[in-house]
Every structure is written in C-alpha cells, then in structure tokens.
Design goal:
The structure is a single chain. This protein is of the alpha+beta class. It has a single domain (about 5-105), classed as 2-Layer Sandwich (HIT family, subunit A). Helices cover about 20% and strands about 20% of the residues. The protein has 2 helices and 5 strands; from the N terminus they run H-E-E-E-H-E-E. It has a 5-stranded antiparallel β-sheet, with helices on one face. Strand 2 (about 25-30) and strand 3 (about 40-45) form a beta hairpin. The protein is globular and about 35 Å long. The chain binds guanosine-5'-monophosphate and zinc ion. Guanosine-5'-monophosphate binds near residues 15, 31 and 94.
C-alpha cells in the first residue's frame, strides 16, 4: 500500500467506492466520472504504479484482471457481451492515477481510435 495513493485508499476502505466485484487480488469499482453507461475500473489490490512496474511475480495478477474482465463481459447485462478494456500507461497516454488500472467501458457503441 502506498499511503499517497487514492486507489490504495479505496482498496483499504479509507475512501468509499461503488464496488462491482472483488477477487483475492483484484477490485472492480465504478469510475467516478463515467465515459459510457458502463465504466468500471479494474485494479490490482497491490500497489503497482503502471504496467511498466509489473514484475514476473505480478503475472498471475495481470492474468486475473483479464479473467475478471471476461467474467464481467458475460455477466453484466448492460454490456451485452461487448466492451473495451483500456490501460493508459504514462502521462502521454492519459494516465493520471499512478496505480495501474484497466478501464472497462461499454453499454454503448464505441468508436476507434479513442483519441
Ligand atoms: P486514468 O486517467 O489515470 O487512466 O484514469 C483514472 C480514472 O480514475 C479516471 O477515469 C477518474 O474518473 C477515476 N477516478 C479518479 N479518482 C477516483 C475516485 O476517487 N473514485 C473513483 N471511483 N474513480 C476515480
Ligand atoms: Zn496504489
């Protein structure tokens, strides 16, 4: 846990969130500023600042995140089995919160490229 990190505080229950799903290593909650009818953040409970910081030991956590995304794609009716996963890495890619997170977005027709 990083005491400065907003997502670590959410994991620790110090900041409330609208929790959607949880596994041993992964937490899913609604984005506070949704870009689509469904906009979840899928995060490792462990503080990993970005994908660049993930180590070999984190491989199982990364796989768990993708598995959870697929599970949500199948079980959240609003997604209708269609969604996009995006993980911004670094400021030029738009990463603001330095605790790795996947955006799971859906519930409407999405365009490409995202900009
Ligand atoms: P980034 O721009 O780093 O890829 O995405 C950070 C995301 O976290 C943004 O979409 C932002 O709306 C969301 N966010 C920031 N602070 C909070 C918070 O305190 N609670 C929730 N639920 N989402 C947050
Ligand atoms: Zn953190």
């Amino acid at each position: 846990m990083s005491s400065e990190c907003i997502f670590c505080k959410i994991v620790a229950g110090l900041i409330p969130c609208d929790k959607v799903h949880e596994t041993a290593n992964v937490l899913v909650f609604k984005d506070i500023s949704p870009a689509a009818p469904v906009h979840y953040l899928i995060i490792p409970k462990k503080h990993i600042p970005s994908l660049l910081d993930a180590t070999q030991e984190d491989q199982a956590i990364l796989a768990e995140i993708l598995f959870v995304a697929g599970h949500l794609g199948k079980t959240v009716p609003e997604l209708n089995r269609n969604f996009r996963l995006a993980v911004s890495t670094g400021p030029d890619a738009g990463q603001v919160v330095m605790h790795m997170h996947y955006h799971l977005i859906g519930g409407r027709k999405l365009t490409w490229p995202p900009g």
